[in-house]
Amino acid sequence: MLHFYYGPGPNPIKIALFLAETGVPFEAIPVDTYRGAQHDTAFRSINPNGKVPALVDTDSPRGTPATLFDSTAILLYLSEKTGQFLGEAQDRPQLLSWLMFIATGLGPFSGQAVHFQHAAPEGLEYAVNRYRREAERHYQVLNDHLEGRSFIVGDHYTIADMSAWGWLDRAARVLKEEDKPLHCWPNLTRFMTMMNARPAVEQARAIMNRHSFKTVMDEDAREAMFPTSFTSASQGTMS
């Protein structure tokens, strides 16, 4: 059985999409990050980095439970376990390259753009500009790559498409533009239209909506999400 630890956000929904696409049995376990559940000792034993998503596979090929964290690692593990959405063998180098492009570039810069525009104190224009521009630059790289092609890697739908979709789905928040945020990138717009038409996308959103997470960014939530004390976060003292 797969035990999927999730919370609201672009990284967990990538895993929800994979699970919806494949139909493999799983248990969804919510981790309420605004309440600080990611810092609890029990969850830190699964992901010492204290972030969602995480996965425990009690029926792993090794014969002992497999514990994973980080959405890219989980996508690779699940696709290898099921033999699905890995693309053709000759596309493996490109698959790894684009997965890392998303994991180390598109995702982090988008996340920091969201933080400095929506959560950080005002007056940090340099940081806002830095992360907005880098998010937009990564959008442009991917937009250029998608010229004349439907999928990011090869001729088939892969986990690279799932991974990119998770972050591009948050473009409105990344760019602070609610109306057609991807209008400057026609290939990304086309890509997202294609992705959102997949039945599994609606199913993935339903998985994410099974639990009513705390959504109010009050002082407790701010301390849980952006701890001012390294010790309190690392030792899991918040609840």
SSE layout:
Blueprint: E1 2-6, H1 10-22, E2 26-30, H2 41-44, E3 54-57, E4 66-69, H3 71-82, H4 92-118, H5 125-145, H6 159-168, H7 171-175, H8 186-196, H9 199-208, H10 219-225, H11 230-234
Parallel strand pairs: 1-2
Antiparallel strand pairs: 1-3, 3-4
Helix pairs in contact: 1-3, 1-6, 1-9, 4-5, 4-6
Domain GST C-terminal: 88-217
Domain GST N-terminal: 1-86
GO molecular function: transferase activity
| Overall radius of gyration | 18 Å
Q: In one word, what is the shape?
A: globular
Uncertain stretches of 5 or more adjacent residues: 235-239
- Determine the strand fraction and express it as a percent band: 5-15%
The domain count comes to 2
Helix content: 40-55%
- CATH class descriptor of the largest domain: Mainly Alpha
How do the strands of the widest beta sheet line up side by side? 2-1-3-4
Main sheet properties: 4 strands, mixed
**Shape-level CATH architecture of the largest domain:** Up-down Bundle
Structural class, judged by helices and strands? alpha+beta
Listing every helix as H and every strand as E from the N terminus to the C terminus, the arrangement reads EHEHEEHHHHHHHHH
Beginning-to-end CA distance, first to last residue: 27 Å
The total beta strand count reads 4
Supply the number of helical segments: 11
Pfam families: GST_C_2, GST_N_2
Domain GST C-terminal: 88-217
Protein name: Glutathione S-transferase
GO molecular function: transferase activity
